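Ticket #478: bound-state structure for flavin-adenine dinucleotide.
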Amino acid sequence: MADKFDVIVIGAGPGGYVAAIRAAQLGLKTACVEKWIGKEGKVVHGGTCLNVGCIPSKALLEASHKFVEAQHDFDDMGIQASDVKMDVTKMMARKDKIVKNLTGGVAGLFKANGVTALEGAGKVLSSKQVEVNKDGDKAVYEADNIIIASGSVPVEIPPTPLTEGLIVDSTGALEFDETPKRLGVIGAGVIGLELGSVWSRLGSEVTVLEAMDSFLPMVDSAIAKETQKLLKKQGLDIKLGARVTGSETNGKEVTVKYTDAKGEQEQVFDKLIVCVGRRPYTQGLLGDDAGVKLDERGFIFVDDQCRTSVPSVYAIGDCVRGPMLAHKASEEGIMVADIIAGHKAEMNYDAIPSVIYTFPEVAWVGMTEQDAKAAGIEVKTGAFPFAASGRAMANNATEGMAKVIADAETDRILGMHIVGQHAGEMIAQGVIAMEFGSSAEDLALTCYAHPTMSEAVHEAALAVDGHAIHMANRKKRK
Ligand code: FAD
Ligand code: AMP
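RESOLUTION: The complex was predicted; output attached.
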């Protein structure tokens, strides 16, 4: 038997590494097991988020957005930048450098906080035992508590099996060495729209095939409609109600078959990205005597405080129910570490923000107007267009709007949905407001710096009672 720990965390993604650091900070003897092999052939920390998710995708989104700005927006500002070119190899090298810095940073944080990094595949043998298998060398560690943070992997669908260089998942789409001429994307979810945007900005003709008839159903319909319009204007051909049923490859191209309202269709692409969601990853994770139960969809079953069916075993992040988001995983990690250390901790699952990092960004927290109505809640809403914002004009970012959804009776904020430049930063105001149980009037009475994009949130809150300043008012102030 090897070392004994207070806590062993399996997985060093944003759920696991944050849980491990917090546990160590709280004085618990902590180890974190990781098996991800990075580009240099060694184990790396950071999981999906740092290696093939949030960070590399944002590096490419930022670079491709700047490329578009340099070509189309600079001239109006008096900046002459002719013959703007994109060097895809250099863009990818920058992305890889950022990933390397950050994954190395996690290893550094482990050292600084006294977390023992164990390399290999972790397996829960029993309520207090974890086996770590590195290339066949197995060691068993004991722990009073185990935190599973094994994450998720992309869903594959039978009609479009991944095919080297032609049909790829999100990971493959972060590694193209040149811009494909005709790019197909299956799935108009968050990841599909982000990756479609990257390559569209670099020159691909992008078609997004989405099985559902509705676009971004989790976003307030006014914001979703505006987003669809803006993405279409940028050149993304988003086909709704288009269910992919098959594909054929000839070594150079992919012919995708799909059905829509008109019947059977076909379209030929140079590359196809499959972005149809992610599934929990639990392969090889649970030994026969682990006793940890999965739910009917294959997620590790947990209660509100991330306890599994075994009292000393917790599970967090993408491998459990709830939105598959890095910050949700991290907050669950902090909550569980606190609980193990004997503190009271809980999470407010109603106030988790989501962001789509297209341009403009789409960000939301809480209910849509449609959700609230479906739940029988009477609401009042206020919206403000960035077209009326001075800062948006100065920024050349007048597209989009902010919307606040409040309870008609209590004025409590139920949701905030934004499409606009920096929406991902602005949404924190909605999250904090909801976390503090604020009313729309609380936001309306807050003094915002001028000129800022956030003033649109202020005006949307004012508009809840019909009193936006920079918009034709609907009501007379009493
Ligand atoms: P993961 O990050 O998947 O980490 C799990 C880790 O556990 C991995 O390192 C894995 O190797 C390890 N592991 C698994 N099993 C074992 C085992 N048996 N032994 C040892 N180690 C094991 N989310 C956002 O919030 N914002 C974004 O902008 C965003 N963009 C994304 C873009 C893309 C292209 C993708 C694919 C995802 C994106 N996500 C984003 C989602 C985000 O990456 C995940 O929600 C997040 O990484 C989940 O964290 P996690 O710790 O639960 O799991
Ligand atoms: P998300 O779960 O947000 O990553 O989004 C994945 C999207 O892929 C969802 O909107 C699904 O409706 C869509 N999708 C899943 N299977 C198919 C398919 N066969 N054809 C087209 N779209 C699909």
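RESOLUTION NOTES: The pocket of adenosine monophosphate (ligand 2) is lined by residues 157, 186-191, 209-212, 243-244, 275-277 (CB under 6 Å).
TICKET STATUS: resolved
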